[in-house]
Amino acid sequence: MNDKIIAHIIKRLERLEKTVFSTGKKDARALAETKKEFKGPKGGILLLLSRGYFSSRKTATEITAELKKSGYDYRRQVVQTALNRLSKNMGPLTTGVKEGGKKAYVKRK
68 near 108, Cβ under 8 Å? Predict the structure, then answer.
C-alpha cells in the first residue's frame, strides 16, 4: 500500500480512538465546543445546560440575557419555543414552577 494511504488511515484511527475512548467531562465538553455542536437556540440552551446554568430556576428573559452573553442573539419568543421543546416529557429541562406568574425552567433530576 502507498505510504500516503497508510498515514491517512492511521490519522483517522487516532481521531476515532480519541473520540471513543476519551476520559473525563472536561475533554468531551471542550471537544463539543470546538466542533460547534451547539448551533441555534436549542444549542445555546444545551450549552448553558452543560455549564450548569440551570441548577436553579430561570425565566425565559434571564435565559435570553445569558444566551446573549454567550454570543447567541435570539428573540425571547424563539428562546421560549426552544425551552418548551426541551422541557417535554423526556427532555433535560422541566417547568411548572411559577415565579411571579411566569414559567421558570430548571434541570430535570
Answer: no
Supply the CATH classification number for the domain 40-109: 1.10.10.10
Separation between Cα atoms, residue 81 and residue 70, nearest integer Å: 19
In the structure grid, which three cell numbers stand for residue 104, read together? 421558570
**Confidence band, pLDDT 50/70/90 cuts, at residue 97:** low
Helix (H) or strand (E) holding 58, with range, is strand 58-59
For 4-59, what is each residue's pLDDT tens digit? Answer: 899 999 999 988 888 887 665 554 445 444 445 788 899 999 999 988 999 888 99
| 3-class SS of residue 24 | coil
CB 46 within 8 Å of CB 3: no
d(CA 25, CA 35): 15
Boundaries of every domain in the chain: 1-37, 40-109
pTM to 2 decimal places = 0.63
